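Data availability (excerpt). The following record was deposited with the supplementary files.
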Amino acid sequence: MRQKIVAGNWKMNKDAESAQSLASEVVNMVKDEVTSEVTVVMAPPFPFLSSTQRQIGDAAQVFLGAQNCYPKDSGAYTGEVSVPMLKSVGVTYVILGHSERREYFGEKDATIADKVDAVLAGGLVPIYCCGESLETREANDHEAFVSGQLDRELFHLDAEAIKKVVIAYEPIWAIGTGKTASPEQAQEMHATLRNHLAKKYGSEVANAISILYGGSVKPDNAAEIFAKPDVDGGLIGGASLKSRDFLEIVKAL
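Predicted structure:
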């Protein structure tokens, strides 16, 4: 059975005090209210990783995530953060290839592939993001575009490695816009990704990989999206900044 995951990407939000409060609230709510086997990930900004991990403590279902990494282990790379550094403060998951990293920081296919390799080599779990723009979808090129991202950024991995990757499909046109892909659109793209994985690695491997939906998931639409057979959870942006909203999304899964 595929792992069910809800990951909260806090992006560049919160300060030290409010980050600690949010982490504490989420952890306590999960302990008190979540009885199903859902993996919960919180990915705060780098300065708040250690304090968030302290709040997580021994919470069995809650894990620490990072929003990015650099593919080298150490060296003269001012401003960057390596996988060994992340691992040393308790990080388990690392978000890679997010559309904002691609758009604002110019991350290319080769860079993202290198980061995937570095995270896997360090024993951490990549949450690899892929997705199309509104222009690409309106041109009806979305399936080919996203399949091509996998070809260039993941398909150098062997079957054992790819099974350790979590994929997050994020329609760029539905991130922070209030627009959401319909449950049917989400299922269509998740099935496309799983079928593309199956062509390369076989159906057994493809069916073992968790594919999350990321694009304006909220408490009032989460259950309908998560009910689709190829949707294994969500990568949550804005709603992860409010503990009750985030918890209701977790409970929907």
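Summary of structural features: The longest helix spans residues 183-201.
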